[in-house]
Amino acid sequence: MKIQRSAAVSVLVLAGLLLASHRALAQGDFPFDTSKLAARADETTTVSLDKNMLRFASKFLNDDAEDRQARRIIENLDGIYVRTFEFKAPGSYSAAELETFRKFFAGSEWSHIVSVHGKEADGDTDIYVRMVDGEVRGMFILAAEPSELTFVHILGPIKPEDLDQLSGNFGIPKRHMMARQPRKDEQQ
Amino acid sequence: MKLGRRHLRRTRFARLLVAAIACTAAPIWGADFNFNHLVSNIENRYQIRHQHIPFMGFASFCAHIATGGGVRGLHIADFEEIGSRIPSDDFDSFVHSQLGDTWSVIVRSHERATNEDTIIYARTDGNRFVLLIADLENGELSLVKVGVDAEHLPRWLNDHEHATL
Lengths: 188, 165
Description:
The structure holds 2 protein chains of 2 kinds. Chain A is an alpha+beta fold.
């Protein structure tokens, strides 16, 4: 039974690393502490892929145009770190908690480029980019659904449009590349 | 004199033979030994015993053949009815210390309802990805080690994808 489960886990991992990369995740390298969320979550998953792992994972990509593009992006990245927290019931985290995380990116070298605040069931998505000498050197995605929170930290040079290639792979949520809708605080 | 030279030649040949066997056998025995060594150290630390899985070598061979050489070195160690749960933090730091710095944790998962922890360690080995998957639950522990080839497996996946399309 256990072996079957282990085999299933293996298959899941391989699926994530190989089949996912067919089109084209550590405690460190995360900008804030998520231990309180982890203590309340029903399921916590962290994915940590450093530069070495990403370079290697890129070898599993195909030679078609789409995968070549994805390979180019991945090879230049320094790391992808994903944390997902699943809760049994909606309302397990507060808006104030989210705001605390968002504040980390205020007034620093981070720029808020995408903010989608959908209806309750749709959840919110925020994308921040880290600018160094006029170039994007990192990206942070905060995807909040009523009973699930996902944080993605991408280190290294990446353009917002590159997300399309990575979306759905390496634990990065599929739906986050949406039209820019400035937050209220940005409009003021 | 003649005898001495022949003896010297034989000795050199013997040394070369031993060196050659050592070189070719080292990766095979090294991979097996590491896993067995880890299992043995886990047994000693937590005073538990793993269960023997018959035909494991054959299963590994089948996986290797079935994936066109994409998967190799499949090892599984299953510990059942190990009594009280092994603390995941302690287990993680112990396993990591055994594996060394060349390994990194790529996936870590915890499920509260079942109190199940899954930790996946990975390292690159030439053109291979070596994964060690540890699944820790109340009274049970499973360890799976598998090597994935960067060249063969994608090709095999492609072939099978095309075959099914």
